[in-house]
Design goal:
three-stranded antiparallel β-sheet; 12 strands; 10 helices; alpha/beta; disordered C terminus; 318 residues; five-stranded mixed β-sheet
């Protein structure tokens, strides 16, 4: 049996089209005609020996085989790009000071920083995990080269900032609802009945980061406008502590779907009669417009990883 050799150029078109949600946009980004992209996709299905796409409305969606191939395409392209970067940047030297919020520690640090370190072993990385306000202050003081942080729109963006993605704010509770024993927890009583529960007169217990926290203000404002009573059940400066308190059933918290641990889950706000919440922006801040080569390369890897992860999370929440 002849071994299939997938064409990396075709896989890149395949991956780019799914990431952008349109193969017309992929053609524009890759500098190809739509007919050339269409021919590449037909070639890919021929190589795969199975159907990869199915019609969904006016666009295309992936079959199970397509989903499987997309996961491998990401890995193959990542390894290819890593090898290319390692050869081009073998002599890249210097250091990068990177700031992140806690949400991205487990999600991005191991993959992105590991990949960067393998490709550029002579570059030193200093990473700092802090809240958004502190990260912006450190940038202004010249203590960071890059920072990845949430922006709730409460402050104007700096000249060198780039909005990477928009993510929804979601109500989060414990994975195991049996841990919760409180009058406000109505989801368990009405699950599967299709009934909309009456609002409890008990204040909603909130688990939030200590002030100052833009998300805290957004949530409190939404609850007050909806006429829902609330109380502060747990507060901390640590996101990990908030996850622990939420998992234990002490109350509900609010966060984006980015980096949620397995012991908490997204709740159906309609079932719990909770107000809708806005989206917030994920922003990559740069200390200067023209970054040094090490910082520029790390920024590219961060953007790729974040956009891929954000696309995956958006699909899961839909």
């Amino acid at each position: 049996m002849t071994q299939v050799m997938f064409d990396l150029d075709v896989l890149r078109t395949f991956s780019t089209g799914m990431a952008l949600g349109s193969y017309a946009r992929a053609a524009d980004k890759l500098g190809r005609s739509t007919s050339a992209v269409s021919a590449q996709l037909k070639k890919l299905e021929s190589q795969a020996g199975t159907v990869l796409f199915r019609k969904e409305g006016r666009g295309l969606a992936l079959t199970d085989a397509g989903e499987t191939l997309l996961a491998y395409a990401h890995r193959m392209l990542e390894l290819n790009d890593e090898a290319s970067a390692a050869l081009r940047g073998a002599d890249l030297q210097g250091w990068v000071r990177l700031g992140l919020q806690e949400d991205f520690g487990e999600t991005l640090l191991p993959a992105v920083l590991g990949r960067f370190a393998r490709a550029h072993p002579k570059v030193r990385i200093e990473a700092c995990v802090a809240r958004s306000g502190e990260l912006r202050e450190r940038l202004e003081l010249g203590q960071l080269d890059l920072a990845l942080a949430w922006d709730a729109g409460d402050q104007p963006l700096s000249p060198h900032a780039e909005r990477v993605a928009r993510m929804p704010l979601l109500w989060i509770g414990p994975t195991a609802p049996e841990r919760v024993d409180a009058p406000w927890w109505t989801e368990r009583e009405h699950r599967g009945t299709g009934a909309r529960p009456a609002r409890s007169t008990e204040p909603l217990p909130l688990i939030m980061l200590d002030a100052p926290c833009p998300l805290r203000e957004i949530v409190i404002t939404a609850l007050d406008r909806a006429g829902l009573p609330w109380r502060r059940a747990f507060g901390s400066a640590s996101l990990a502590a908030l996850w622990a308190a939420t998992s234990a059933g002490l109350g509900l918290t609010v966060r984006t779907p980015f980096g949620l641990p397995s012991h908490v889950r997204v709740l159906d706000r309609a079932v719990l009669s909770l107000p809708a919440l806005p989206q917030i922006s994920l922003v990559l801040y740069r200390a200067q417009a023209r970054a040094e080569a090490p910082a520029s390369r790390l920024a590219t890897l961060l953007l790729e990883a974040v956009r891929q992860h954000a696309q995956f999370e958006a699909v899961q929440v839909r």
